[in-house]
């Protein structure tokens, strides 16, 4: 198998933020971590000597790629090339925080803004669900986002303000009242099917009884 020794084969050089972005993983890799990133078995599986050579090439050819970049934007106008684009971003309307799960945004609201959708920690009552969901949707914004590093400093999600027509944010989940209505329809369908199912089962039982001659047990001859 031919080995590629060019840094450009594995990484994209971002000169604006001084990054080496892995083309396969679509996130930036810090120079001290390049050898491990390329050689780990679960990732690229590149031989150690090749990974070392690529790392040296990045060090020599891309001297602007630093170990700890100092610029970490919270938002960009357009996507940063080569970084993965996530359509399911959730942005806090009170600050620049962006995440990708409702659990993360709830935790952020609780810790940073002392805000809770239901104003209590217990499980919401059915009558509170719809109003709570509407309140949550008003407190957040569905966005498209990226992030530079997968962990550590610089791993926060970045809001893309103009992602383009091909990268529209994911739609919000259906409202609680719509979900409840669908559940009720399914439950009613199940209930309506029960009499018919019982009739079919009774008919099958009758046929089995007739097929056995009406005997409920073995006949004993004397």
UniProtKB/TrEMBL annotation:
Domain C2H2-type: 92-113
Segments of skewed composition (Polar residues): 190-203
Chain segments carrying region Disordered: 190-222
Highest taxon of the lineage: Eukaryota
Protein name: C2H2-type domain-containing protein
Organism whose genome encodes this protein: Penicillium daleae
Organism classification: Eukaryota, Fungi, Dikarya, Ascomycota, Pezizomycotina
